[in-house]
Design brief:
Layout lengths: L3 E4 L2 E4 L10 H5 L2 E9 L2 E2 L2 H15 L7 H14 L5 E8 L16 E8 L6 H5 L1 E7 L14 H12 L4 E6 L2 E5 L3 E5 L5 E3 L10 H12 L4 E3 L4 H5 L3 E6 L3 E8 L2 E2 L7 H15 L1 H5 L1
Parallel strand pairs: 7-8, 7-14, 11-12
Antiparallel strand pairs: 1-2, 1-6, 3-4, 3-5, 5-6, 8-9, 10-11, 10-13, 13-14, 14-15
The protein binds 4'-deoxy-4'-aminopyridoxal-5'-phosphate.
Length: 287
């Protein structure tokens, strides 16, 4: 079956999906995006992802081409057309096509592109073994709360991680961890409390982070929303990351130092289980 993508109102084979040369996404990185998991055929945390998309678009003043119900229909349709029941749906909106000039063009329709990536999220080997992380300086701009398609700093950070034999980079500013290249970062203290950086312009408001915090409260796990340093992370009992495409993944080393006993920790495992249970439940995922 040919891979079907969505571009500007049409579903079509990926080979036929062409974006014009003068698209502002291509020339300026002038756009925003979203990424959402699909599990057992349902969209995970769909409303929260669409709410964040609406906010990103508003913040960069790109008109939102679709209502929430229309976005949802497109997501469901692209998953159906690709026969995908577990994986990732990516969608982006750019300011559209216009002669290159910095200021917003007038009367230009946004470009909307959407594709799917089939992926085993629940049975990912990284969830069993845990992953290695390196730390790098956070070189991004000051509005990281907007899910911008400008990802050059993250491309460089994650490539540095790969070259060091790691699977994620934790970005660091003034000695404090901001977040992962494409994930939210957490540690667990020796007393069993989760520590996560509070929301601000310095990090993306992760949707998996938000859901997981609510679920961890229900499970009676204590939470500290505060900054943490790289040294505190080295010394933590456990560390983990969250993102829509991975859910909860244990981190077993940071900069080559083992975290805890160097194996996925019990609190991380429990949180992953709780999250998967929520994500597989049609009732909660539909909320
Ligand atoms: N931070 C950054 C920088 C990210 O790119 C992502 C994933 N897109 C996240 C955090 C996690 O966000 P979410 O749980 O919404 O996927």
């Amino acid at each position: 079956m040919s891979r079907i993508v969505f571009l500007n109102g049409s579903f079509l084979p990926i080979e036929e999906a062409k974006v014009p040369f003068m698209d502002r996404g291509f020339l300026f990185g002038d756009g925003v995006y979203e990424g959402i998991a699909i599990l057992d055929g349902h969209l995970v945390d769909n409303d929260a992802h669409l709410e964040r998309l609406e906010r990103s678009l508003r913040e960069v003043r790109i008109p939102n081409p679709y209502t929430r119900a229309e976005w949802t229909r497109l997501e469901e349709e692209i998953a159906r057309r690709n026969g995908m029941t577990e994986g990732f749906i990516y969608f982006q909106v750019t300011r559209g096509v216009a002669e290159r000039d910095f200021m917003f063009p007038e009367n230009t329709a946004p470009t909307v592109a959407m594709f799917t990536q089939a992926k085993a999220i629940v049975n990912a080997p990284a969830a069993e073994k845990g992953i290695a992380v390196i730390t790098v300086p956070d070189q991004r701009w000051s509005r990281r709360d907007i899910k911008s398609i400008n990802l050059l700093a993250q491309v460089l950070a994650k490539q540095a991680a790969k070259e060091a034999g790691a699977q994620e980079a934790w970005m660091v500013q003034d000695g404090f961890v901001t977040e992962g290249g494409s994930s939210s970062g957490f540690i667990v203290t020796k007393e069993g409390r989760i520590v996560v950086r509070p929301l601000s312009n310095a990090i993306l408001p992760g949707i998996t982070r938000k859901s997981l915090l609510a679920l961890s409260q229900d499970a009676g796990i204590e939470l500290e929303e505060r900054l943490f340093t790289v040294e505190e992370a080295y010394d933590a009992a456990e560390a983990f990351m969250t993102s829509a495409s991975t859910f909860v993944l244990p981190i077993v080393s940071i900069d080559g130092r083992s975290i805890g006993d160097g194996k996925p920790g019990p609190i991380t495992k429990k949180l992953r289980e709780i999250y998967i249970r929520m994500a597989s439940s049609p009732r909660m995922a539909a909320e």
